[in-house]
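Run folding on both entries below.
>entry_1
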Amino acid sequence: MGQYNDACTSFEFVMQEKPDFKTGLHMVLSYYALADRENMRKSFLRLLDVHAEADDFEKLVPEGDAQWNSLRESLNNDPLHRLERQAKFEGERCILMSAKLISPVIEDTFTVGYQWCVEAIKESTHNHLADDLEINKAVLFLRQKDVAQATETLRSFEKRSNKMATNAAVNLSTIYYLQGDVASAEKYAEVARDSDPYNAAAFVCLGNCSLRRSDFNKAKDFFLCALDNDAACVEALYNLGLTYRSANQVEKSMEQFVKLQMVLRHQPEVLFQIANLNEDLGNDEQAIEWYLQVHTVVPSDEGVLQKLGETFDRLGDRQQAFQYYSDSYRHYPSNLEVIRWLASYYTEMHVPEKAISLYERAGQMRPNEVQWQLAVASCTQRVGNYHKALQILKSTRSKFPENIECLRALIRLCTDLGLKEAGDYASDLRKLEHSQNETIQENKRTGTSVTYSSGRGSGLSSAASGVDSTLKSQPTSAESLSKSIHLYQTTPVDTSYQDQLGPLQDRPRTSRRLMNVETDDLDVGSDLLPL
């Protein structure tokens, strides 16, 4: 009912008469809702004063006696023992939850508040939880993107010789691995393995480092050791499947992921790997079944939808492929491969007006690539808007003055429209081809390679522009200039243009051929003559 003051009064009475962990946790929560720092500290200290159920069974049973060892094993999981373990686990959970809750608010900074909670736990009967709390502190630093503080917190466990030191070393190894420092990651993984030879996570970290170095045999051995120590280590099984796949052992990789899928039924990463492996093996129909399972778990994943579209397209089912490509584009409209396929599909289905918006979006994403502007112009021409297509090509020509394909498209369109500009563009194309030929010959003499591109960018590399500036700086006589002009005028120009979207559609022919009638041989009746 939101009456936190009355709730705090009742909880304090219960904690005085018969304290327990759940009541202490609720009292901390009530004072947290009231934003009462002082009472939050007092409530947390009273929570730490609650006596936990002591597990004295191991202390009472003498060691070295075979009869008592058999009795210990038989009574280790009896109902009373399980109840004590559950109560102990519940108490530890309440303490750790309370510490995580109040540490950011009881002091001015999160670090100071967390340190106060750690010191309070160390001075209580639950001092074994202090290390857990410090590990959680490092994890919280990672969630806050403060990697330096997390690393410093974990390094404080280096000189300790307990289980938490091993866990800290594993976490440090993971942090360094994600940062790309494989040497440091391997160092701390070896520290974790040496302190606890049965720690599966340490072997997983070592296997990851070997996998990063492409040492597949060594990585496989580490992952198998991790599985020997802990058969339920899903990380080791997953990474072992990745190792076999990286080593081109697709069948063994499939075997590992199928085993993992029996443990993790609805894990999308595992289902995706099985689907992808079936695709590599050529089993497209089975790949579709697994991709559909992934799609059921994560229906908004654009990558899975794209994979479904690719697989259906490979099987020849264009309609289903279009459906999944459209869904992928709807969830993530910035995938160039999806945009390219959809635009190509619309062009193939003779709906170029829908492809125009797709190519325009691709051109906005990649403004320095000429192919998208040329595709927009081609689709606009297919729609029948020739003058707009001409404007687009002129704009593209001003932006990419040395692109041959754009010039050829301009020559073709101007020729179809009967414009005199076709000759000017043909002359520019002849000069550009001549300039490129000279640059190629010059680079052959100097041993410099130059790459020309008719689809992207300007079409000339920096080396070509350097040669061109050198030629311009040399004095030119009138005779050589006249020879150059004569060469430009007499050299045949290749104005053939192949549209990257395919040949244009033929215009519909609505007129019919007129019949030639010989009027001299035609007899007209008198009834048909005008009066």
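>entry_2
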Amino acid sequence: MIPAWLVTVPTTALLFLFYVTFYHDMEFAMWMYRPDIVDANGRVRDLQELGRHFRDGYDFIVVGAGTAGCVVANRLSEVKGWKVLLLEAGRDETVVGEVPAMMTTYQTTTTDWMYKTEPDPGYCRGIDDGRCIWRSGKVLGGTSTMSAMVYTRGNKRDYDKWKCMGNDGWSYKDVLPYFKKSEDMRIDGLRDSPYHGIGGYVTLEEYRYYSPLIKYLFKGIEELGYTLRDINGESQNGFMHSYGTLRNGFRCSTAKAFLRPVRDRPNLDVSLESHVESVIIDPLSKTAGEVVFVKRGYRYHVSVHKEVIISAGVINSPQILMLSGVGPAKHLKELGIYPVISDLKVGDNLQDNICASGIVYTVDAPVGTTLLNFLSFSGLSDMLFNSNGTLMGIPAAHGVGFQSSSIADSPDYPDIKHYLAPMAENTEGGVIFKYMNRFTDSFYNKVYKPIAFKDSFMTWSCLMRPKSRGYLRLRSRNSTLHPMIYPKYMTHPDDVKVLVEAARFSGKLSKTFALRKIGAKLNPNKFLGCEHLEMMSDEYLECSLRTYLMSLWQFAGTCKMGPATDPDAVVDPRLRVYGVRGLRVADASIMPNIITGGTYAPCIMIGEKVSDMIKDDWHQHFYNQSFSG
């Protein structure tokens, strides 16, 4: 008999209790039955005896063990005579986070920086406080540890444009070898592709679970005339079943890929829970000399003999630079940061891939898209004992593809990306997505609650090359306070035009024979604040975008790469910070323009490429020294 008190508990609360219980049951079961995934003996060791190790300093200090930083630490420590320190503000990866479907468990926890943008009436009206939520990994592996793992490199023209902007060495021809270098492609039919590599640190596989709904979505895609192809190959226009950075079906972050195999190198130290405050730069020689960080309440100064490589991400990298006296002089002086070592436009040129999302289509056929279909104990058993089942897929992106809008530069240069999602904001009843995205109660209850738990699909239809530019600034000299983020979404009219066009894609898909066959219907509940507008009109879609748009959390551009003639450049084409010796930046912040795809794969490439640049520069330095005396 059900206790009377339990009947009065809201369904959402019960489901949340189930979700939490399921998480802990899974964690316990993985420790019991999957020691290969737990990998307790193979994980990275945290540096403990700090004083003894720090006494003599390091040749290189890498700030941030994120997507690119793990790559840099591995590659630099390949040189036996170089001593390398890798500093990470977060902790080690969790066990449950290795399971693809559990990617959301990293979000809104201590492993997430949990950034928020400053309020703006032009967007995020349906989010608490009107502040968009920005996720970023505060954990070993960075955002590669909490992302959906989907592997997309961008378009050839993106990199050729970088070169045309004066960034020699960054054309597609230049960067392709670095993409291939990191890869261990394990998908049949792609292993022999000239666009992929084998034997690298990062394993690429297909997911081990795709929703039954995906076959209907792909039939609809083909009805609309799109080609199915490898979008990381010869051409990008078209669709494919998503594949990602996976190993034997489980997550393969850059920490797992690049750090665990080299954890015993005597010249590589990794210090976790190490929050970097600044880089000490000598004001006379303008040379980076020390890194200051706090670990478990103690502050440390560590000297560097050759270089500091900041790889802390699009928000933290400019924050660290500005706190070190590198950035817009007027802003730094207003905060009392002296001396200003180099007056650069740090924090400008902020870009983000944003998506028309939340426009839901319900289906009549029971195709297993609800929360309990994914989080089932049969799925847990399949994962534990067979490495397959519902937990081995990601809810948000079972398919991915690109199309060109009506104002794209070229039919061969798509500017819209679509994720095919056989799960939506309503299918889990507000347990995950409402909390994760911080929807207001009024917005969620009006739009999604009436269709809660119904089998549904949607697309995340995303703007790839935004023309709007935002910026960030320090909130104070306190390094623990997040910067003020002003993304300035949709301030350029072309961005609105492309997003409205992108938002129509799921409607076209729903009208195909394949989707009509299973009763695809548009959610009739209009977005809050848009009730007076005709459903799916241009005006309605723009209103819906300003109520709720989805960030892919793929930010770029705040430490722009460019030649010395570019007044907006922060780093040169070898990623050296202008006006400072011994200081580089290596992450998505150096991108002059965001690429047409995810930033995950390009950040691995950036880590590979900058490592070779550093090796080349210092080997050339030694060569010149040996012949100068």
